Amino acid sequence: MPTTLEAKTPRLVTALPGPNAKRVLEQDAKFMSPSYTRDYPLVAKRGHGAIVEDVDGNAFLDFAAGIAVCSTGHCHPKVVAAIQKQAAELIHMSGTDFYYESMPQLAERLGRTMLGAESKKVFFTNSGTEAIEGAVKLARYATKRDKLIAFYGCFHGRSMGALSLTASKSTQRKGFGALLSGIEHIPYPYAYRCAHGHTEDTCGAEILEQLEGQIFKRLFDPEDVAGIIIEPIQGEGGYVSAPKFFLQELQRICRQHGIMFIVDEVQSGMGRTGKWWASEHAGIEPDILCSAKGIASGMPLGAIVAKETVMRWKPGSHGTTFGGNPVCIAAALATMDLIESEYMENASRMGDYLFGRLADWTKNFKIVGDVRGRGLMIGIEIVRDQRTKEKAADLRNAIVDLAFHKGLLVLGAGENTIRLSPPLLIDQEQADFAVRTLEDCFREAQKRSGKLRVPWLLQKKYGGHGIFVYTAREAGGIGAGTMPIFSQLMFRAVHWAARRGLRGEESFSNDAKKQELGASACEEKPIHYWYLRKQGYIFVARNYTPRGIKGEIDLVGYDGKTLAFVEVRTRTIREGLPALPELSITREKQHVVVRTAQRFIAERHVGECPCRFDVMAIDNCPGQPPVVRLRKDAFSPQR
Ligand SMILES: Cc1ncc(COP(=O)(O)O)c(C=O)c1O
Q1: Ligand 1 pocket test, candidate residues 293, 320, 419, most atoms within 8 A of CB
Q2: Do residue 377 and residue 418 come from a single domain?
Q3: In which domain, by residue range, is 615 found?
């Protein structure tokens, strides 16, 4: 009998998350930055091949590969041996100041993978973001120009320069102020949603026209443009591929104007699409190529590979302490051996096999709008309606969560796409398991969506994030006598939400009079409900107590933009001035509220909704009406 890690398919031995996982989640909620976006509570302990075991001994089949990083699977023995050998010999020297043999070795190998006769030079970084950051500097340096063109939907990283190019989700930019100037974004060719009705082969002609006819004529003279940067297959944007002709035309435009053609292959490279680089499928020869993720099987390494004639910056113009660390380079050399000898070919073969199995999914599942990608970079776009192509982020999230509970790890990409980015070593048995599991999940999700579809208008108006619950009474109230159809729709919304585990606010006072402040002076609940409603909140949950962690949130409200976690403090004031609301909550309690809120966000998949923490103080003075004060944004998790 194989051990859990040696098995090829999952084995779940506890409910998820298990008891040990819960402990880690609690600690994580307490100490980790809340900016991370975890889709489900996997607490990984060890991995082997395409199997990951969690801290409770549950084994999962990994079709996410640490965001397309573990190209040779988890802890491939050859990669581990290379790391161990190197770590015992030399861990660090800093390639900026010293030499070591493996650095030019890897650079030479990477250069050889790129198309084009011209020799290449390489700069090593610690991450994809740093590779992009360096590529931008290099393009500016080499051309002595400063303007850049990037594409909507592309993700290039989160440091200030890379973030200025990223145009994936506004949450990634919000709150960070001014970014690099001189960058213009243009649409990415997205065949499934092509406004001009083009196919996968022809989509994008109008975008090129816009670039040459509008951008170059009205905004940036092409002689001022340092670089055009593109992902040949968008990763975070939803696994959307740019057509071959589009990449070729971009290259032509770049050559014509002396613009650097920069290709971001951080996610799409290193054999994932069946060739070293996704851009190879289009036969293009970029001036600068950025790599990271799969390059070293999980060790932090990135690379800027550029034509020798381009990478001619002077000593001191760019450098790094850790980039190209000997241990990472050893892992990368072992990774390249494995990709070259078997995994690139396997990615191509298993990719074809998976595409074959998914070929009929748009016919079999009404919620599948598109299946696309190349090799083991596969995107499945989830829609509410194939005709309208309405994006169904909630269903996508539900599928990702269902898959986890069935032992399959997948991630979302873009607003409503499921990404399959397994390690490149998966075999047919594992591909079959993933397909079967996803089929089950899709069936379940489809059942949910089919029965109780909330009309788009309602969701937009009342539940932009799919979290809103209206009471049956409120629904009835709105509909009664005036708009019976609307009333019916509201009821459907209530049921829709209830099916997703969102509870309605049943106990909102039935007696309208009781909602008047003062009429039930010392009764706490009607007052704070009344008060919050007056503030324009919609109730989402009350006394939310997540399973497995100790904590409660008195009220969760939504004001149309922000999710507010409200702590209600009721006090009896006998003499003196009552304290300010925000002072009435201790730091320990703040921690509990934040932790509980994080769980709420994770469970409801509302991670993209802006949040804040409010404190409401209800001060009861005997014989007088209570004083209600609400302090919005009373505390923040960072403080
Ligand atoms: C295409 C692309 N470029 C750049 C990055 C940034 O890489 P890193 O997270 O290693 O900094 C990513 C990360 O997802 C990516 O997918």
Answers
A1: 293
A2: yes
A3: 461-635
